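Example 4.3 (complexes with small molecules)
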Amino acid sequence: MTGDDPREEPREFEDEASGTAADAVAVDEGATPLRADGGAAGADDVALDPWGSSTVSDYRKLFDEFGIEEFDDVLDEVPHPHYLMRRGVIFGQRDYRSVIRALQNDEPAAVLSGFMPTGDPHIGHKLVFDEIIWHQQQGAEAHALIADLEANAARGLSWEEIDEHARSYLLSLLALGFDPEDGDLYRQSENREVQDLAFDLGAEANFSEFQAIYGFDGETDVSHMQSVVTQMADILYPQLDEPKPTVIPVGPDQDPHVRLARDLAERMRFFKVSKAYASFELEADERELVAEFYERLDPADFDDEQLRCVHVAETLEETPLAELGVGASTLESVLTKLNEGGMEPLRPRTRFSDRRATDAAFDALIEAIEGEKRVYENHVDAFEIDRAEAEELAREIEVENGGYGFQPPSSIYHRFMTGLTGGKMSSSIPASHISLLDDPEDGYDKVKSATTGGRETAEEQREKGGKADECPVYELYAYLLAGDDDEFAKRVYDECVGGERLCGDCKEQAAQLMKEFLEEHQQKRAEVEELLEEADIELESPRRR
Ligand code: TRP
Ligand code: SF4
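Answer. The structure with tryptophan bound is encoded below.
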């Protein structure tokens, strides 16, 4: 064992620690110690499986392979970012800007996440509870749901177990600050609107797609598939009263669900808005090419001072392929389309394509478009409105005519915590995680016996510093124990990597903080019992099986 391989378990190191070592290494102030990039040890797969094991070994692959974007790209735009954002625990996002903008402008926005009541809520769930609560406090309409149908269908839990766990999740959510009077709580099985929406969405998805996304096969329970469309409906539920930016805070394992929901939201739309240059359709790369030549060519150079499809075709044919920046097949396809267009003038326009609009909605749209327009069988071209106006108009007409007008839901992703025993945090290994219901003394003990990023000996630690980035105990500080206090988190980090902090003392401090956190949290849980009884959510399912 070399100790250099980050996938190896950081070794246990118990020192008799005097803590404040006189020979402490100077601390590099320039480091960025707040980031909890600590190692998800042991994992190596990047497949995102909502019902599999939740570990991710390489977060960068999520950006490259799945198109999740870095949270850092938008961090500066978030007003008063939560500490989980500041510390890089929330590391990824899709389309989160739309939510930030709405919050900034006091426009409607929503947050929604769901919990499968399969066990006791633990400190990993706390991340999501905190994310929901933070958005609620920033003015978003907040929804939290109990995924009881999913727990029953995908995990086979009985309704009795589900009720017990559901109650416990809700108590922790309220104890951490969710305001049930201003927010919405529901369980999937009791929400008729969600079920109706799920049915509608189901008409837009088919089995082959579920197979491709989730690996379902001929043996998969139909109710498991139903729980997927139910989750799609959960995600779009905040937009039933009106379309609005909605953020879904989840772990990256849920990203397949988010992607499908974004797709379905789009497929449900009545109209698709795009840019076009003539009556026919162009693929994206073809359109770019035509756009470029449209800009480049001067109509005055042609017979009747009109730029026509054939003119562009001719110019393209005269230009060497290498200069065009597209493949031969793209060029061929554009040329065919342009030549078929013949003498049709080339003019940029905003196109509304009819996807699934009713006749009445299509007529209403035609009516509503101002300025010059051209109506075709399945699309209308508008010459005097830009893309953004067109998007707005399309949504307005859709909603007025009984459509949903969904915006694609946004998402934010948090890192998974490393287990206290190294490897992944797993509810089936009690020592690896801390339940919010753990006896505070047990919580204390678990932290005390946690794996660390410490060195073999106190000497070596003083000399080289600890590996905070690979230390589950440091993660506890960053994700939870330091709370909003960045300075404290930074101090722990700096002292650790600077060799001033030794693991024994460090764990003692963390264990003490954990104990206090659990005591306080459990006290609050008791206090919000009444609040939960008054909340508008069914605590006992009439179902029994
Ligand atoms: N599938 C989620 C889980 O396994 C639970 C869930 C159901 C959910 N509906 C949701 C999460 C909607 C986010 C949004 O934990
Ligand atoms: Fe040790 Fe604390 Fe550093 Fe972890 S953070 S390696 S427990 S000193």
